[in-house]
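FIELD: query
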Amino acid sequence: MDRRTLTLMATLKWSAGNHRLRAVLVALAATALAACMTNVDYSRPGASLEQREGKTLVFSRIRFFYDGREIYPWDASAFYDAVLEIERAEARHIWLRRLDVTEMSWELRPDTDGALTLWLLPGDYAMFGTEDDPGGPGEPALAVVALLRVPAGQPVVYAGELTFTEDLRQGGHPYYIFGSGTVTTDSLAAATRKLESRYGTLRGPPTVSAWCVGKDLPSGNYSSELRRQLQQLLDQGCSASH
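FIELD: result
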């Protein structure tokens, strides 16, 4: 996120005491976030699903549960609270990185309900996450929270419903940055209907290639060794999923 965006965020936080500025704050914050998505190829409601050369349409949903209730990090009102540091425990930030390149995407911004529809090049991807403020002092502590293989030759891929649960009543899950992670693909029919209601009929059934999650995902600084371990998990069929 560039300096102008960080300055805007700080200004919004300073002026948020005036309730009449709430609507302005939310709108400007959304604009700032949109400026941070320039290298993520989203598909949004109203956009066409015409095939993009060399890319695969990947759709999924990401859900978070915290202390017994579902939270929505991408809801504009929830983001407003995050700016004011009212509910910092509910902050969730995620990025994607292809394993064969060094650059990481800008922060991902799914729809309010967690639906995520992207055009991605075939290949292997790691999702990194943090609960730290990316605009705060120092670098946020990132961890690998999920893996994804986008197979070549498949125009549409369903990655499943990815759910992270942090239940403090059960002592939490210290091994996982967002709590425990699970992924299901039995929601394929419902997810496909929802996708088509927003974009139109798909050209053929989607292929399932689910997120890989689990406490055995390796961690550490992003390096050639970490990439090797992540690649190996995907090559093994992602046995860490549980």
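FIELD: remark
Helices lie at 3-15, 22-34, 76-83, 188-199, 224-235.
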